[in-house]
Write a structure and sequence with these properties.
The protein is an alpha/beta fold. 41% of the residues lie in helices and 18% in strands. It folds into two domains: 181 residues, Putative sugar-binding, N-terminal domain (Rossmann fold); 174 residues, Molybdenum Cofactor Biosythetic Enzyme, Chain A (3-Layer(aba) Sandwich), CATH 3.40.980. It is built from 14 helices and 15 strands. A hairpin with a 2-residue loop joins strand 4 and strand 5. Catalyzes the ATP-dependent phosphorylation of 3-oxo-tetronate to 3-oxo-tetronate 4-phosphate. This is 3-oxo-tetronate kinase.
């Protein structure tokens, strides 16, 4: 069995990320877990202050381990690693839209340099020609790393087969780290050795009921998705000045507007998504941290108000936005339903009448918001 704990630790202070991660580790150890997976975004969202490095260092120390791997690749969504450089499609990470990320702008694509800046150890690389030779070659290369200063071993991956190879090679490593892609390899290897057991996606099928789209991401793909969806459904942009002037009143205004559109063919959308130039002006006026926090507060309050109004389906764009919405709605566990786009399924709360589609900023195709509703209808 796999136990997953979701934490909002990507961009909080490093000390908080470490504290929450160690608390999660302690609980998992108490449940009898033997292998631990620190999952981060496939675009390695972080800064020189963290939080990937500080959390990995703390987990290694707590587990009494000296080394782990770095494997953010998710080829199905265009995230590949070659010679230690992270690519988004055909672009280096720092040449993609991630260079404009409002919270963690990525200005380097070399994973070794990125982790060394924020961690307390050195990085090594197992390059693709070794990965392509299979699990035994990867395991041998890991064993051959004999520099005690090396804490992080970056793994190249160009295809899902490379992730399957890694999964076999890492079956005995106590602490692994990566994006969601590495989990494919680990899970496949586990299932082949121990037998697969899982629930049908039917348990996670979205409920019937009023829906809303909440978009907080400013990624390139989400900008395209919002632009497309605005032509199909009722949509309203967030007025950040209103968030600072009287947040409570503004939440009531938006709640009433969304509620008035509840019978529209496609769900109404509230979006804070904007292009990089406008985002820079907003951050200059209100401050990076203050503007991000106020938008999160808005979406949290709006989600709670809409839940109280009987809304049962929430389609959310952006990792930070998804996290705050799920926390506010009191989601503690959910059934995983059908896949909308690679890496983004519908999920259904195990205790409450709530269905959610939680989308990382750059995931999904341009028609994601509409497809999430149209392809999984209960007519």
């Amino acid at each position: 069995e796999a136990v997953v704990i979701s934490l909002k630790t990507r961009s909080c202070p490093a000390e908080m990320a470490v504290s929450q991660s160690l608390a999660a580790l302690s609980w998992l150890q108490a449940q009898g877990c033997q292998q631990f997976y620190f999952k981060y975004c496939s675009t390695f969202d972080s800064t020189a202050q963290g939080n990937i490095g500080p959390v990995l260092d703390a987990l290694l120390a707590e587990l009494g381990e000296t080394r782990t791997v770095i494997s953010p690749a998710l080829p199905v969504n265009g995230r590949t690693v070659y010679q230690g450089y992270l690519f988004v499609g055909e672009q280096l990470l720092n040449e993609s839209g991630m260079r404009h990320h409002p919270v963690t702008p990525m200005e380097d694509a070399h994973l070794g340099r990125l982790i060394e800046r924020q961690g307390r150890g050195k990085a090594a690389l197992i390059a693709w020609p070794i990965v392509a030779r299979g699990p035994e070659a990867v395991a041998a290369a890991l064993a051959a790393v004999n520099d005690p200063a090396v804490r992080y071993v970056v793994l190249d991956a160009l295809s899902e087969q490379d992730l399957l190879t890694q999964g076999v090679a890492l079956r005995e490593m106590k602490l692994v780290s990566g994006g969601s892609g590495l989990a494919i390899g680990l899970a496949r290897d586990w299932a082949q050795r121990h037998g697969a057991r899982g629930e049908s996606a039917q348990a996670g099928m979205p409920l019937v009921g009023p829906a809303v789209v909440l978009s907080g991401s400013c990624s390139v793909m989400t900008n395209s998705q919002v632009a497309a969806y605005r032509q199909q459904a009722p949509a309203r942009a967030v007025d950040l000045s209103a968030c600072f002037t009287d947040l409570e009143s503004y939440v009531r205004t938006l709640t009433d507007w969304v509620d008035a559109q509840r019978d529209a063919p496609l769900a109404p959308m509230i979006y804070a998504t904007t292009e990089p130039q406008t985002l820079q002006r907003i951050q200059a006026q209100y401050g990076d941290k203050a503007s991000s926090e106020r938008v999160e507060q808005l979406f949290a309050a709006l989600a709670a108000a809409l839940k109280a109004k009987g809304f049962t389906r929430f389609i959310v764009a952006g990792g930070e936005t998804s996290s705050i919405v799920a926390q506010t709605l009191g989601v503690e566990a959910f059934h995983i339903g059908p896949t909308i786009s690679p890496g983004v399924p519908w999920v259904r709360d195990t205790r409450q009448p709530l269905s959610l589609a939680l989308k990382s900023g750059n995931f999904g195709d341009i028609q994601f918001f509409a497809r999430a509703q149209q392809e999984f209808r209960h007519d």
